[in-house]
Amino acid sequence: MSASLGAADATMVELRQNFFGIWAAIKRNPSATAGIAVLLAWGIVAILAPVVAPYDPTAIDFLAAADPMPSSSHWLGTDSTGRDILSRIIWGARTTYTVVPLSVFAAFIVGIALGMPAGYFGGWIDTLVSRASDIMLSFPALILYIILITSFGPSLCNIVIAVTLAYAPGVSRLARAITLSLREQDYVAAAQVRGETSLYIMAVEILPNARGPLTVDLCLRAGYTVILTGTLGFLGLGLPPPTADWGGMVVENGHLLSIYWHMTVFPCLAISSVVISCNLVADSLRGGRTR
Amino acid sequence: MNDTSLLTVEKLEISYRKDGLLLPVVKDFSLRLAPSETYGLVGESGCGKSTVAYALLGYLSEHGVITDGSITLNGTDVRKLDHAGLRKLRGGDVAMVYQEPVSALNPVLTIGRQLREARLAKRDCSKADANDASISMLKAVQLPDPAAMFDRYPHELSGGQAQRVVIAMALLAEPKLLVLDEPTTGLDATVEAEVVELIANLGRKLGTAILYISHNLTLVGRICERVGVMYSGRIVEEAPTRQLFQQPRHPYTAGLLGCRPYSAAAGKNRRLATIPGNVPLPGQEPAGCSFGPRCQYFEPGRCDQLPGPILEAVAGPTRVRCVRRDEIVPQTLVPVSVAHRPKSGSSVIEVEALVKSYAPRHALRFGGKSPGPEARNANDKISLSVKGGEILSIVGESGSGKSTLAKIAIGLEEATSGRMITFGQDVAQVRARRRPLHLLHKIQMIFQNPDSTLNPAHTIGAIIGRAVRCVNGKQSAADIKRHVDSLLAAVALPPEFRHKYPHELSGGQRQRVGIARAFAGHPEVIIADEPVSALDVSIQAAIVNLLLDMQAHAGTTFLFISHDVALVRHLSDRVAVLYGGQLMEMGTVDEVFSPPFHPYTARLISAASGRAASGGPKSEGKVGQHASCRFFEQCHVRIDGLCDRETPPRREGSESHSVTCHHELSELAMQPILVSETM
Question: Which residue intervals define the domain ABC transporter in the entry (chain B) (predicted)?
Answer without folding.
Answer: 9-257, 349-605
